[in-house]
Amino acid sequence: MTNRIGIYPGTFDPITTGHLDIIRRSLRVVDQLIIGVALDTTKHPIFDVNLRADLVRQDVADMLLEDSERVAVIPFSGLLINFAREHNAKLLIRGLRAVSDYEYEFQMACMNTTLDSSIETVFLTASEGTHFISSRFVKQIARLGGDVGKMVSLNVARHLEAYFEAER
Predict the structure, then answer these.
(1) Annotated catalytic, 19?
(2) 97 an active-site residue?
(3) For the whole prediction, is pTM greater than 0.90?
(4) Less Cβ around it within 10 Å: N or C end of the chain?
(5) Phi, psi of 29 (to 5 degrees)
């Protein structure tokens, strides 16, 4: 039997309960999951790539006590397809929250297929309780002093609070 390796890429700035839901459910589809924390992004993250990767590692370890050995968190730079090739991954996992996500993700999947047709993209729809959560909204709420405790882990909430406190 082949080892199905999947990559769940993202900025994870910050990682949310929505991301964690996709990670947990991805393990039903793959044997090994690599969470690729993207350095190159047009999103202008507030946390550097190493802190984002550390936050993801901590949340994954807390959530997947018995399955954590099946997950690796690796920062990456450059094309996702090249990162997938480097790690012998044949599946890219993407989460979809809304129709607006689908249009962008569909275009990205088509481009990735053009670059390497041996790597498939799998879409997982957000669970009912997480479809409204986005890192962008979490940061806006935290910036304004709101409670993000239902959208991120306590560890991430503390980092957000410290970041925005220092910014004030």
Answers:
(1) yes
(2) yes
(3) yes
(4) N
(5) -105, -30
